[in-house]
Amino acid sequence: MKILVVHRQKSIVDQIKSLLGSCNPVVLHAVTGLDGLLTSRVERFDLIICGTDLPVVTGFELVRSIRTNSINREAPVIFLSDIVDDKTQHLGNALGVAGMLAMKDVEGMLAGIVNDRVKTEPDKVWKDLFSSTSLN
């Protein structure tokens, strides 16, 4: 599973790696929304996890841009916020995110959302590579 985490705090990335360790994830980390946006335009991800309050480009702007102009249009997104209020809930629903978690709920709920909503695709490049080589 390949995950893009866009969040200011490196400790959040470490927590996500720990919580999803059974999935053996490859996790890339971006600190600003702009870095996350640029990364999401050149590389495909199975899941994007981002904060709502990011420097330069907010999480909401990041997801809106991903949904309109990115190879990750269909990638599930999980928002992380200090609190999930009505405004955050409304904006998240409008953007079609897979989940919205308050920071205090990450440990208890992240793995469940990932199991329910994220479907990883097989790496077709490797599959093609193995099927086209002959083993002697």
List the SSEs and their pairings.
Layout: E1 2-6, H1 10-19, E2 26-30, H2 33-42, E3 47-51, H3 59-68, E4 77-81, H4 86-95, E5 99-102, H5 106-117, H6 124-132
Parallel strand pairs: 1-2, 1-3, 3-4, 4-5
Helix pairs in contact: 2-3
Question: How does this model look, in words?
Answer:
The protein has one domain: Rossmann fold. It contains six helices and five strands, in the order βαβαβαβαβαα. It has a five-stranded parallel sheet, sandwiched between helices. The longest helix has 12 residues. The C terminus is likely disordered. The protein is 45% helix and 18% strand. By secondary structure, the chain is α/β, with parallel strands linked by helices. α3 links the parallel β3 and β4. It is globular, with a radius of gyration of 16 Å. The protein starts with a strand and ends with a helix.
Task: State the gist of this model.
By secondary structure, this protein is an alpha/beta fold. It has helices at residues 10-19, 33-42, 59-68, 86-95, 106-117, 124-132; strands spanning 2-6, 26-30, 47-51, 77-81, 99-102.
Helix content: 40-55%
Distance between the termini: 31 Å
**CATH fold topology:** Rossmann fold
| Total tally of structural domains | 1
What can be said about the biggest beta sheet? 5 strands, parallel
Uncertain residue segments: 124-136
Strand content: 15-25%
- Going across the biggest sheet, name each strand in turn: 2-1-3-4-5
Number of helices: 6
